[in-house]
Design a protein that fits this description.
This protein is an alpha/beta fold. It has 16 helices and 14 strands.
Length: 410
């Protein structure tokens, strides 16, 4: 089953936010995340809030189906407009994720985008992204998305090796993601991303190099590479526990990361976040940068998380409960937390240190500043930026990013 929602205080039924959430809002960009919780099958490693048709039938009293899902999301977008009041900011980024958004008709994704445009307006240069499974789109579908306003697309490639895809229980065949990049370019998409996963049980260094070569050769302007995290409760975790497949270790993950940085760097991709590389500044994912820089976003859909001005909240997880709340004219929010100054300071360090620009040393307390000097001496932080007042991870520092962050937040 999908992961558990965090604890928090109750969400007001009307979704109202405290006045503090809007202080200084004009200086922050605003984005929307639209969650589509449907999948044809559940991949063995997946811990996201997604549901197959079988899981929805077994949940009882289903009120949310693919057929009416786009209108439900539009209802939440209209609720967002009421909550945000006369906030004049146009939306800078829209990201449709899942699940598998492209299980819905292209017209449904376009209609959800239209609801954002109608209620909030879109910035002239707004980044509009959808995730897509390689086997759930074709040229006509991509052309309809592009005509409807989408200008960026992210394909879940994961690997170029069939035996690795089999362990991950991915349904597409090797070569299909590369073909999707060509089809997206032909449809007029300016920016295309490929998602890769390294550290799958049974994957070798040669397998990983082959996946990177295939991804680079396809011609995207953005590549994301994530270490496989085996979450408890997933099918893959059970298979590893039974000894059916081996578990990779941290050293293997580090080796694969170094290979990724080497191959992508040689192909003209620069890292701008620990797990993300782009060929140009324009090719970066602006929506994800919005998260990492603590800006404002509204997450619509079951289990979606939002953040506005230091207030974080999350929706009920199940599509049926989500639909019922909206049908009753209530916020689908399950809970929220209002972050204090210290929480926000710590989060800035946690998130900004992952970026190529790093985080200001001025955010650090005395113990954290002392830890930063040790990290500099150990080659974990770059000397040049440090002298200019910023903590920026070196390549070795990226490998140990979590440990560096733990020391700096003290």
């Amino acid at each position: 089953m999908p992961s558990v929602l965090p604890d928090g205080e109750p969400m007001p039924e009307d979704g109202a936010l405290p006045p503090s959430a809007f202080e200084g809002a004009g200086a922050r960009p605003l984005g929307f995340y639209l969650h589509v919780p449907y999948c044809a099958t559940r991949c063995g490693y997946c811990d996201f809030n997604t549901y197959t048709a079988t899981e929805l039938r077994s949940s009882g009293g289903v009120l949310a189906s693919r057929d009416n899902y786009a209108e439900m999301v539009a209802d939440e977008i209209r609720l967002a407009r009421k909550v945000m009041g006369d906030d004049p900011r146009p939306v800078q980024t829209v990201f449709v994720g899942g699940g598998t958004p492209t299980l819905l008709a292209a017209a449904d994704l376009v209609s959800m985008l239209a609801a954002v445009r109608d209620e909030f307006g879109l910035a002239e240069d707004a980044e509009i992204t959808t995730e897509a499974n390689p086997d759930s789109v074709d040229p006509a579908y991509l052309a309809e998305l592009r005509a409807g306003g989408f200008n960026r697309i992210s394909f879940g490639m994961q690997s170029a090796r069939q035996h690795v895809l089999k362990v991950l229980e991915r349904t597409h065949t090797p070569g299909r993601p590369e073909a999707c990049v060509a089809e997206a370019r032909a449809a007029g998409f300016e920016h295309v991303n490929l998602d890769l996963i390294y550290g799958t049980p049974g994957e070798s260094d040669d397998d990983w190099r082959a996946s990177l070569a295939a991804a680079v050769g396809a011609g995207p302007d953005h590549v994301s590479a994530y270490a496989l995290i085996v979450e408890e409760g997933t099918q893959l975790a059970r298979r590893i526990r039974r000894g059916e497949v081996p578990m990779t270790d941290d050293d293997e993950h580090a080796d694969r990361y170094l290979i990724a940085d080497e191959v992508l760097g040689a192909a003209g991709f620069d890292w701008y976040e620990v797990s993300n590389w782009a060929t140009t500044e324009a090719g970066r994912c602006l929506h994800n940068e919005l998260y990492w820089r603590g800006a404002d976003w509204w997450g619509a859909g079951p289990g979606a998380h939002s953040h506005v001005g230091g207030v974080r909240w999350w929706n009920v997880k199940h599509p049926g409960a989500y639909a019922a709340a909206l049908a009753a004219g209530k916020s689908p929010g399950a809970g929220r937390e209002v972050l204090g100054a210290e929480d926000r300071r710590v989060e800035r360090i946690l998130l900004e240190l992952r970026l190529r620009d790093g985080c200001p040393l001025s955010l650090l307390l005395p113990a954290g500043l002392a830890a930063s000097r040790r990290a500099l001496g150990e080659g974990l932080l770059e000397a040049g930026p440090y002298g200019e007042g910023r903590a920026v991870l070196t390549l070795r520092g990226r490998l140990l990013a979590d440990a560096v962050v733990r020391d700096l937040v003290d």
